[in-house]
Amino acid sequence: MKNFSVARAYSAGVDLIERKPWTLVWWAAATIVLLFLPRFFIPGLAGGMNEWSGVRDVWASAGNPEAMKAASAKLQAMQAANHSPGMGFLWMLWSLFVSAIFYNAAYRAVLQPQNASFGYLRIGMAEFWQFLVLIVQFFLVLAYALVVALIVFAVAMAAHAAGPVAAGWIMAVTFILLLILTLWLSLRLSLGQVATFAEGKFAYFASWKLTKGRVWRLFWTSFLTLAMLIGLYCMFFFTVLLAVLPLSMITHVTGTPTLEPMTQGPPTVPTELLTLAAVGLGVWLIVASLISAVVHALALAPWAAAYKGLTSEGAEHG
Asked: By CB neighbour count within 10 A (0-12 exposed, 13-18 middle, 19+ buried), where does 22 fall?
């Protein structure tokens, strides 16, 4: 029976970064162009409000409580106006389509490493098939969540009837069983997106056959990958914290905060602070997009490597 190496799958993302480091630059640029800039600027071009200026004003007024309160209120009004339920639905669909592009890029980097131009990024039928898979997966998750909620409700009613002593044990066992079931189903369907890319058609449920008897290896692959990503997130968080704390102290020292009641509206934020905030926001977009690219590489490549091990002639046998 064909199998795959957990170590090779787990390290597939690191191998991709080492082998093609410029891929991260392409993915970061695509993140900025396809996600960040549309979110900040398209509403303004369509007659809405420009969220870039709203976020910039909040950052620039960080040292002045009154100005920051006014800027935050303005930003919230912008977001409420720009993200109506209809726009929110369209933005969700667009985000899923962009995700399909990145998913296929990561899978292509492992399964078709010779197609390395433009950081493995493409827009074609393969991306539309992946987009369809993500939509189906979204509705499956909603349906499963509804079923789980109904099960929990029914068990809670039964536990209440059984009395307070047994109720705690019944609910605890139920949650543990549901957690195991959810994890098992997730792992059994974990290669559906890769199969869809590899076969060039909707093949989400092909994962069920591929993963039969391999759940344990898939579990360890996902566990190690998640542990690595959590470690990276913690590192990024503490790095940002160490960078922001001195900046915050400088802002509070150089700013002109006041808690006196406003009589002529919020104080004006100096132009130099607006410029500094705009530069900082631009740097943040670049750093955030690079972090997103790293996460995509580390989180997606392992599943492509597992699929490759389970379907190629050079796979391990167990």
From this structure: exposed
